Amino acid sequence: MASPLLTPAMSASTQQDRLAVIWIQKAPPHLSKKEFDAKVDALVDSLVALPVARKNFMAFKVLYQNNRMDSVLRECGYPEPPVNVVVIAECETMDNFTEFASDEEVKKLLLAAKTSGFQAGACVFAADVNTKIDDPTPAELNLWVGIYKIPSHLSRVEFEQKMDALSDDYIAGPLSQKHFVNHSMWKQNSSIARHVQDAGLPEAEPTVILMTQAQTWDKLIEVSDNSAGKNVITDAIHDFAVHVNSSCFGADVVVKI
Fold first, then answer.
1. Are 160 and 208 within 8 A, CB to CB?
2. Could you tell me which of 72, 211, 89 has the C-alpha nearest to residue 141?
3. Contact assessment for residue 20 and residue 86, using Cβ atoms and an 8 Å cutoff
4. 3-state helix, strand and coil shares in percent for the chain, rounded to the nearest 5
5. What is the rounded distance in angstroms from the CA atom of residue 123 to the CA atom of residue 55?
6. Cβ(12)–Cβ(131) under 8 Å?
7. Could you give the CA distance from residue 234 to residue 78 in angstroms, rounded to a whole number?
8. Integer angstrom CA distances of residue 160 from 72, 166, 191
9. What is the pLDDT of residues 142-159, one digit of tens each?
């Protein structure tokens, strides 16, 4: 069945009523993907087991990289992504997140995670979410994640405008309209920057994320492998080097809360 990345109330028109937090964690070089995924899973399980997490979060999901999209994404011009995991957490208000981030048990767990090299590879921020497709049709748990950093020749505003246009063009195709059940654009904001700093984490690089779900993995790959979809990406590569420092991959979604 479909597992929306956000609770039903958090649509493009009502996202102001929720706080969405993204944690992108790159794997330390000394860990294999299997070891890294296991350590992230253990850390997340410890965090969501805390009463303060159960009290304050409406949703807590983990996106684990897989290789289902690798071939077609390389053909589209995207580089091989670094190994990483994405955590999506959602709460009603900033007060909810502040209570969680200020909890001593949370601080202890995050401090212990630094010994595994998690601090240096972390990128944590709140996001403004624009959900452009939200179809309740039952679907497999599949997801294409695209993490994009701003090229040096563009301002943040210019980059976000171009990413918004790329997103619109990609979902406008007939196959996209036929097969996609969810598509959203996540733009970084600074609302939790102080909490990130207080936790000793690095300042988040300006980032835009696109997430897309289709009816099945095969349908998701079919859209990406179609000439129309490839042309949108090729044009963006030529126009503003969208592929530079990007990290695009298929992901398995694990619901924790």
1. yes
2. 211
3. no
4. 40, 30, 30
5. 24
6. yes
7. 10
8. 25, 10, 18
9. 899 999 999 888 999 999
Reported as a single tens digit per residue, the pLDDT across 3-55 is 455 555 444 444 567 899 999 999 998 899 999 999 999 999 999 999 999 99
Residue type for position 93: T
Measure the CA–CA gap between 200 and 1, rounded to whole angstroms: 38
Task: Indicate the CATH number for domain 15-255.
Answer: 3.30.70.100
SS3 string, 41-59, reads HHHHHHHHCCHHHHHHEEE
Taking a C-beta distance cutoff of 8 angstroms, is the pair 72, 78 a contact? Answer: no
Domain ranges of the chain: 15-255
Q: Which helix (H) or strand (E) holds 96?
A: helix 94-102
User: At 174, which amino acid appears?
Assistant: P
DSSP 62: E
Residue whose token pair is 């924790």: 256
Evaluate if residue 192 carries a pLDDT over 80: yes
Contacts of 97 (CB under 8 A, 6+ apart): 19, 21, 56, 91, 192, 195
